[in-house]
Amino acid sequence: MKIIRLFEDDMLEYEQEVIGKLGLDATIEVRVSQTEEEIIANARDADVVIAVYEPLTQRVLESLPNLKFVLYRSIGFNSVDLEYATKKNLPVSHLASYCIDEVANYVVAAILMHNRRLHDFNQSIKVDKKWDYQLFPDMRRLSSLTVGLIGFGNIPRLISERLRVFGCRVIAYDPFVDKEVFIQAGVEAVSLEEVFAESDYISCHLPLNEQTKELLDASLFGLATKAPVFINSSRGGVVKEDDLVVALSDGSLSYAILDVVSTEDPDLTTLPFMAMENVLLTPHIAFYSQEAFLHGVRENMKNIQAFLRKDYAHAGIVNLEGLSLNQ
């Protein structure tokens, strides 16, 4: 079995080590491919491809005759044409538990940093040369505030656990999660509109798909009554970016902490958030740690092992219900 990884990192030696430990009859090669043409040329002989953001369009999938399994080294899998993959009876797998600790910590760190205004005080001292403890008289105790989570999967559940010690109210929107899960977590299940109307901090954890694309727009930002802080560590495409800029400009939202924007490789000369003092940007690093990279490799290879064993329920396959696989 030939595995082709479509992106560059430093994990090849570890991947080969894990393949050996799991006893997989497989070889792995790195063939960096960013365009449809490059993927078609470089992965034509692949039985398995490993991707993150690379465009696995219908055209690409049609052109890879040996392809039996698609792996994502990420939680998100929005760059694949999932509908066509399912029609082609092609399993697409993702990492269910990858980097959830890191992203949860990023969000909690973002909330704490803003709540205590660490970045802004530092900027005031070092850039404006001001030593003024009263610079932000509206600072509030975190336990008096409400944090709203958009989505209540693995990552926001960890966030709610971490926030419990600070005593703040936590609410969440997720129509796909059973109410009992919210009750057990001590989190209030609310509508998406209520998240914006009631929260002081809002953290987005939506996957990007046709249903969520630009879902967060002016109609929701306009419901905010507390000028909340908006945090996005999921996918930039779930936000209508022009509307977010307006909401941050007119005070509907007071601040944004964005790990993602509308593209994965933005032009910083035209990105509107660059000139906004009430926006803090990081380059999609919420997932990042050495431990997360190692975890991702292990989970990828275990998904391959489960797939080869026909243990499809444990192979991380996101389109399993629509496939006809031999049991």
Automatic annotation (TrEMBL):
Pfam families: 2-Hacid_dh, 2-Hacid_dh_C. Keywords: NAD, Oxidoreductase. Residues 108-286 form the D-isomer specific 2-hydroxyacid dehydrogenase NAD-binding domain. CDD domains: CtBP_dh. Residues 11-310 form the D-isomer specific 2-hydroxyacid dehydrogenase catalytic domain. It comes from the Bacteria. Belongs to the D-isomer specific 2-hydroxyacid dehydrogenase family. This is C-terminal binding protein. It comes from Streptococcus zhangguiae.
